[in-house]
Amino acid sequence: MAGVQPPPLRSLDDFLLSSARFAVPDVRDLERWNNRMINNLLYYQTNYFLSTLGVLLIVGYFQPLQLFVGMTVVTVLFLGFVWAAENKASIRRFRRNHPLVTVLTILLASYLFISALGGVAVFLFGIAFPVLSLPWDSCWRPWGRNRRLGPKQGGEGEDGSEDEVGGKEKMEQ
């Protein structure tokens, strides 16, 4: 674990401003769309993490009590669901077969419980907005060849003789 380093923080210009490009994804090619999202999530993960943290800090600054109440309610409901899933086989099967429905049910129950208490779903907004903006952003941002996730593996050097994705095989074609 000593060799693990967080990915570098990308520049604001690359992440949001002039050099950032956004394009409509090709929804007919799901494999390419999926690769685009994964590559963008990996490449900008530090920026996404800091953006999410920033939104939570802003929400916590303006609505600290509601954020704390929301965080407590969501945590208690989530832990209650995990406990029920560990003790009931039918709930465990449902959680394994329908993970998205499970998460949405927990969030909906949290929202209804917070609303019943008279509070605002500040925590849910503080979590949902950044989390939903991650796939949205990574989906609309095209993946460029000039972006690399890490150092070249087994490359010939910096003379441009190898492509960072395909290697020598692509050069010969």
Automatic annotation (TrEMBL):
Segments spanning the bilayer are: 41-61, 67-85
Chief subcellular location equals membrane
Name the domain of life this protein comes from: Eukaryota
Keywords for this protein: Membrane, Transmembrane, Transmembrane helix
Keyword Membrane tagged: yes
The protein's matches in InterPro entries, at most eight in alphabetical order, are given as:
Prenylated_rab_accept_PRA1
Please list where the region (Disordered) is annotated.
148-173
The entry's localization annotation reads: Membrane
Membrane topology summary? Multi-pass membrane protein
**Does the UniProt entry include the keyword Transmembrane?**
yes
Please report which protein family the annotation says this sequence is part of: Belongs to the PRA1 family.
Q: Which PANTHER family match?
A: PRA1 FAMILY PROTEIN 2, PRA1 PROTEIN
Q: What is this protein called?
A: PRA1 family protein
Task: Tell me which species this is from.
Answer: Goodea atripinnis
